Amino acid sequence: MSSSISTLSTGVGNEDSHSSTSSTGCERASSLSTSMLRKSTDEEFSKEGLRKDLIPKHIAIILDGNRRWLKEQGKPLDYMPFFHINHLFADLCLKWGVSAATTFIYSYDNLQRGKSSGNLNSISILLQEANDLIFGQLERILEDNLENYIRKKIRVSLIGERKELPKSLQNVVKHVEEATSREPNAQLLDWRLAVCYAGTRDILQATRRFCEKAKAGLIEPNDIDAASFDLELSTAGTPTPELLIRTGGELRLSNYLIWPLALAEYYFLPIQAPEFTEAHFLDALRSFQQRDRNFGR
Question: Which sequence positions are flagged as catalytic?
Answer without folding.
Answer: 64
